[in-house]
């Protein structure tokens, strides 16, 4: 019996030894609970913050690309206008139209100021021509003088009635010449280069001559008298 108990004790002691020998190897493979817990509790490494430009790009919504502004075309300066061609020569004056004078009458009387502006000058009331021109001068001067006498006579009647002379050119034409009226003064027709005119300052009828007309007619007719 004693030997059986000794054998049982020896067997238990051997089992204990075996258990002791195998325990260290198991500890190497399985980490202690505290180490495992510590590793589980360790916080994860903080994420590296993205650069500011990357964050701004991420927050700004994408926009379509803006087309580059096309520069306006440079204005081309207008070319200088070509110089005008030489001015066309002045048109030749119309031929002078003569008019009949014998037994012809007129009531056309110009205002002296307007006649002078048109190139008129006071006609000579004396005979200065020689040869064939004497007859023409005699007619012109006699006709002009008779017309002036007739107007002066009617001006005297007007002054006796109104105690004044015509106040202006219009009244002279209305009351003295009485243009357009059958009983108005009918003045003898003058040559084409002469006209009657009224001088409102001197209250008189005068004869005005236009030398340019006379000269042109003489050139056209190679020196004809022009009657």
Order of helices and strands: HHHEEHEHHEEEH
Unreliable spans are 25-61
Oligomer: single chain
How many β-strands, per DSSP? Answer: 6
What is the rounded distance between the termini?
199 Å
By secondary-structure content and strand pairing, the structural class works out as: alpha+beta
Q: Strand order, main sheet: write it out.
A: 2-5-6-3
Largest sheet: 4 strands, mixed
Helix content: 40-55%
Fold and architecture overview:
The protein starts with a helix and ends in a 7-residue tail after the last helix. It has helices at residues 2-29, 33-41, 52-59, 112-117, 133-162, 169-177, 211-220, and strands at 105-106, 109-111, 121-122, 187-188, 194-199, 204-209. It has a domain at 105-220. The radius of gyration is 68 Å and the shape is rod-shaped. It contains seven helices and six strands. Residues 25-61 have low confidence and may be disordered. With 227 residues, the protein is α+β, with helices and mostly antiparallel strands. A hairpin with a 4-residue loop joins strand 5 (194-199) and strand 6. The strands form two sheets. Strands 2-5-6-3 form a four-stranded mixed β-sheet. The protein has a two-stranded antiparallel ribbon with strand order 1-4. Helix content is 44%, strand content 9%.
Topology summary:
Layout: H1 2-29, H2 33-41, H3 52-59, E1 105-106, E2 109-111, H4 112-117, E3 121-122, H5 133-162, H6 169-177, E4 187-188, E5 194-199, E6 204-209, H7 211-220
Parallel strand pairs: 2-5
Antiparallel strand pairs: 1-4, 3-6, 5-6
